[in-house]
What we know:
- By secondary structure, the chain is α+β, with helices and mostly antiparallel strands.
- It has a single domain, classed as Alpha carbonic anhydrase (Carbonic Anhydrase II, Roll).
- 18% of the residues lie in helices and 26% in strands.
- The chain has 4 helices and 14 strands.
Amino acid sequence: MRECPTKAPLGSLYKCWRLKMLIPIAVLVVATTIDVAAESALCPLPSHHVHFGYHPGSEDGPSHWTDLDQDTHCCGGSNQSPIDIETEDVHCAHLGDIYYEPKPRGLLSGNLKINGHGASLAFFKQDRLVTKDIPFTDGEYVLDSMHFHSPSEHLVNGKHFDGELHLVHFKKEYGNLHDAVDKEDGLAVIGVFLKVTDESHDHAFNRFVDGVAHLRGDEAEEVRLDPRELLLDHKHYGTYKGSLTTPPCSESVRWVLMRKPIITTADRLGVLKSVPVDGGGALSVDTNVRPAQPLNGRIVNYTCK
Length: 305
């Protein structure tokens, strides 16, 4: 910064000294604002049930999520999910394959329940898989649960897939999903797209669909499947830093989007879309998809293999 002159009219000296005092204060205010904004994007899970919806015109729709609760203001953050991936703009990166540890082996068990916006399968603690291969992270991530959206939440070149599975992980050192949500590196979600054809070969996905078909009311259905079967191509995926796609929208998620979709039939996808949602209608009538969020300069990396 330029020094104030030693010989100048008193009025000029006063203005110079005043400016020198204000600049550090302004810098401090800006730095503090940035820190608060960064911290505010890591909201914890609300301590009570927060009702939210997906219809654009409703009072609890996505445009109003920031105002639903004191713990949902993160939905207005700058690194939100889902996004529209323009493949012409992605960065080529040499990333490792995605694999789970070999144990436990075989089919894994969990409780499948309707959650008001679809159905979610929570794996039993003894059957949770662990991976060290989440890109741009360190440590191990534990597979906690899986659920679905229809159509897909993420878009590729402006287009939805027919559906999207989300495999939700928490960083092992944080102990559980609840305590990991508000940590910068707390979560990782693997997204697997669904594409409707006239065939359906994926055994794990079909077991999930069969479990959904047996759901009744609030009762849980025990389901056994091998989540490793859902990752059809371990080498090819895209990844970026984002958020949960539902309130509290914490920006603690490293997203991994598998590029090879699971193929399924319209009938099997229809089973998932027949699940009742809050309000009494079916998912086929309503929706559980958040609109794509601005990229805001974030980099989407695609494997170069």
